[in-house]
Every structure is written in structure tokens, then in C-alpha cells.
Amino acid sequence: MSSSKRVENRPDVSQLRSCLSNGHTDRRDTDVVVFDSTDLPATERLFTRAYSQTTICPDGGQPPEAHFQRRWYGPVAVDDLDVRFHMTYEAAPMRRICLTHVRTGTIEEDVAEQGRDVLGPGDVALFCRPDSPYSGRVCNARYAMTMFDLDLLERVAIHDGEPVRLLGHRPVSAEAERFVHATIDYVRSLAAEGAPASPLAAASAANVLAGAVLSAFPNTAMGTAGRPPERTGSRPALLNRAIAFIEENAASPIVLSDVAAWVHVTPRALQYMFKRHLEMTPMAYLRRVRLDHAHRDLVDADPAETTVQRIADRWGFAHTGRFAAAYRQTYGRMPSDTLRY
Fold first, then answer.
1. Looking at the DSSP assignment, which residues form a beta bridge with residue 318?
2. 195 HSE (CA, 13 A, CB side)
3. Helix 282-300 to helix 235-248 angle, to the nearest 10 degrees?
4. Which of 153, 162, 208, 250 has the fewest Cβ atoms within 10 Å of its own Cβ atom?
5. CA-to-CA dists, residue 238 to 184, 216, 242, 243, 259, angstroms
6. Angle at Cα 119 formed by Cα 224 and Cα 139, nearest 5°?
7. CA distances from 174 to 180, 188, 287, 304 (A)
8. Distances (CA, A) of 39 to 44, 289, 315
9. How far is residue 313's CA from residue 195's CA, in Å, rounded to a whole number?
């Protein structure tokens, strides 16, 4: 006997193809899709619609009981899965960045050119390479999947024009694993809160997650140290132009590559320029500009008509506590004090 159910007023399995498509601008960020089933073909369709064309096969004789939940935070999809049987799977390329965190049980991944790797409780890894078919085995596992589109990685990366390729599925060190794990937890906590995010706050959180992936996992944009060619005469003018672009577009979800394209230099050259002349990265400068805008809004606002959280969210600070800490470090007082007086 099998069953499937859905959250009231939410899409059911027959509607997942449209609801779980790559784009989600026609949905509210608070949408939640829930799927519970012991019907193997229904579960296979769910995996196909949620990830990519998938074939699954039970392995072990248990009832094929599966539970799935998806939330969104802007462009990031946040999934929780509980596969209460053993199954093998084969799937087409996902074309997205998919991070997995195993909570219980194991996931056996077939890694290209490396054989099978076993992920156990606590492990964080890339579930698959975005451009390659993937296969493996899920063994009575409860795990989380956090996904975003591949083009976001390109936009955030510091590289010199060549497409960024991920070279491994495990973080480069224990410290890198802790870092990416903490970032995933941060973004997932925002999704779990259920409150709609402003476009800027959602984009900022997604950018942080993409940056964490590039910092934690081996890739072609990592560790390519090298000083960009000097163009001493044009540096100050280019820097001023980049600063002007950042300040004029602080209310938009811009990333490093947008600024670099505007001033016609590579992202790496732009990074070097800011560090040399301002002793900070372009994105740190952007956060400082947004913090300044938030400060001005707090000074001008009526506390009866707005809150610190609303102003922080308006300027891309999704986590109010982190915003308050940054604000206090910069202005010497809490944002609530500025708003109140």
C-alpha cells in the first residue's frame, strides 16, 4: 500500500514539474513543497522533477518509504530528504551546484576517476559535478540538499575569463568543511524562518553561499596566485569608476563580475586594485556602502513606522544580529538606538 500527501494549498506531485523548475520568480519565498510516499514510481518522478532525469532501484527489501521537503530562499533551493530504504540511483547531469549534508545513514557516491566515496553522518560534500551524470547508493539516509544555479558560481568567481570548473567533491580541508557547513546552515536558517526576503537580501545570501563553495572546494579559480599586469597610469581612474558604479548600484544585487565588467578589467585585477589602494575587497566596500545607506535610513526613519529588521533587509542584511554587530563596530552604537533617537 502506498500513499502520497501534500501541504494544504501547496503543489502536489503532479504539479512538481512547474513548481520545481529552475526558475521560481512566480512563487513566494515562503512556499513549501512536501512529498511523502511509499510508491517507488512516484518517488522516481519526484527525484526527476526536483533534480534531473533519475532512475532508482530498491536494494535491500525494505518498503520504499521516502520523505521530501523543499523551501526556497531567493535563488537557493533548500531540501530535506529522508530515504528510509536502500536504493541505487543513476541520473543525468543536474546543471546546478548541489551541496549535501548527511545527517544519518550513508550515501555512496560514484566519483569520476576516483571510484566510490562513502559520505557518513556529518559529512558535507558536493552531491555531483554539475556537468556530469551521477550515480550511487543511498542507504537509509536522512540528508539535506542545498542548490543554486551554476551561473551564480561564474558571477561570483574571481577568474580571468575561463569558465570555472569544480575539481573535487570534498572540501579542501577540515577548516574549509566547517566554513561551508556554517554557511549552508546560515542560508538554510533564513529559509526556515519563512518570512519573504527582499530581492537584495536573498541575492546577497546566495552570493555568500556561492563564495563559500569557491573557497571550500577545489576549482580552477582557486589558488591561481599571480599579480595582474600593472597599468599604473590607469589604476586611479579605474578605481574611481568602480567605486562610482558600486555606490550608484548599492541597492541592486551586483556581484564582483558586474563591477569588473563595468570597468573592463578581470575580476582578479579588480580585486587586486581594491586591496592595493583601499585595503579591502570590492565586495567588502559594497557592504560598507550598504551599511552606510542603512545608517542614513535609521537616522531619518520614524520608529513608529519601521523596524531595524526592515531597514537591514532593505539593504541586503538578512541576519539582523550580524547587521547589528557590524553596525555597532562601525558607528559605536546599536542600530536600535539610532532608530529610537
1. none
2. 11
3. 40
4. 162
5. 35, 31, 6, 9, 11
6. 150
7. 10, 21, 28, 47
8. 9, 53, 45
9. 11
Strand partners, 54: 91
- 290-336 per-position pLDDT tens digit: 999 999 899 888 888 899 999 999 999 988 888 999 998 888 889 99
Instruction: Retrieve residue 26's grid coordinates.
Output: 512566480
Q: Which residue has the cell 536522512?
A: 142
> How far apart are the C-alpha atoms of 49 and 155, rounded to whole Å?
26
* Torsion sign (Cα): 83, 85, 88, 90: negative
- CA pair distance 165, 14, nearest whole angstrom: 35
Q: What is the structure's pLDDT at 39?
A: 93
DSSP secondary structure of 258-273: HHHHHHTS-HHHHHHH
Instruction: Give the residue carrying C-alpha cell 523548475.
Output: 21
Three-state secondary structure call for residue 332: coil
Q: What is the pTM of this model?
A: 0.74
| Domains of the chain by start residue, with CATH | 4-150 (2.60.120.10), 203-340 (1.10.10.60)
Total length of the chain:
341
Q: Provide the 3-class DSSP secondary structure of residue 149.
A: strand
Q: Which residue, among 33, 48, 38, has the nearest Cα to 4 in the 3D structure?
A: 38
Q: Which residue pairs, CB below 8 angstroms and at least 24 apart, start in 110-117?
A: 110/134, 110/135, 110/136, 111/169, 117/169, 117/170
Rg of the chain over Cα atoms, rounded to whole angstroms, equals 22
Average confidence (pLDDT) over 143-161: 85
In three state form, how does the secondary structure of 115-145 look? EEEEECCCCEEECCCCCCCEEEEEEEEEEEE
Q: Which three cell numbers stand for residue 48?
A: 526527476
Provide the grid cell at 267: 575580476
